[in-house]
Amino acid sequence: MSNEINYSIIIPHKNIPELLKRCLDSIPRRYDIQIIVVDDNSDPCIVNFENLIKLQDSCVEIILTKEGKGAGFAKNTGLKKVKGKWLLIADADDYFNDNFLVHLDNYKNSSYEIVYFGISRINKKIEQENNIDPYYDNLMYNALNYKKYDDYKYKDYNSWGKMLRVSHIMENNIFFDETVVATDRMFSVKNAYYSKNIHFDPNRIYTYFIEQRTDSLTQMKTPKAYYDRLYVYSRMNRFFENISQKKYRINLFSTFIKIINIKEINYTLKALKLLMSKNVPL
Fold first, then answer.
1. CATH superfamily assigned to domain 7-215
2. pLDDT along the chain (282 residues), means of 10
3. Has this prediction a pTM greater than 0.70?
4. Which segments of the chain does DSSP mark as H helices, in order?
């Protein structure tokens, strides 16, 4: 039996041990799979670390960080431990679909740098399960039928739902933003741009949740979160300009207005300074 690791799966985690267990349970244990759980300084009153560590087996590595620097830092910490040829990212509150490894195995020996897969979603707010996400489904349909590859590459801001060649990431020095929110965006866009050999597969390998958890990063509405979004979006816009893809720039105005409406003068001034220093139009 080969000791080669084909897939490294990084799962950042903070304070949701039951959902983490569901995510881990969706991943079959196999000799060629490395699972890296990076805990972002969870509250010991919420997470029983002894039980969490017991989850370890031959496939699972658990890294307990104490810095509390967020999901981007956690994922970068996980990247340092990767041993596989391919990288997959999962949020701890999501899970992989049944038989997803069958679809991954079709490409494990391919020369692709990225393989984009279809995804499913569950919207708890309206109690819909296994719902096709119209946004991603449309991107996939247009890529497969009309060769609109750039639309998928530059409008898919998440790191999950795809397999990424590890050597390509390392050679191009691509890492996650260590911001409070929007940690995946530059990582995904840069991976897409520097990849010259990509593939699209409509099979759905991953299910993500639209939840209303107050601690969900997508729901975070603090001044710091809005500022970090503006910071990341402005960098993305500059990147799109530099690669002659201006049509994919993000409208910064709504994010800037949200910062103003919070009425935190320090963050309003920081946002203005950021936009002026980078000469970024709203």
1. Spore Coat Polysaccharide Biosynthesis Protein SpsA; Chain A (3.90.550.10)
2. 85 96 95 96 89 74 92 97 98 96 98 97 67 91 98 97 98 97 97 98 94 59 93 95 96 92 90 81 61
3. yes
4. 17-25, 49-54, 71-79, 100-105, 134-146, 149-155, 166-171, 185-194, 223-242, 253-262, 265-277
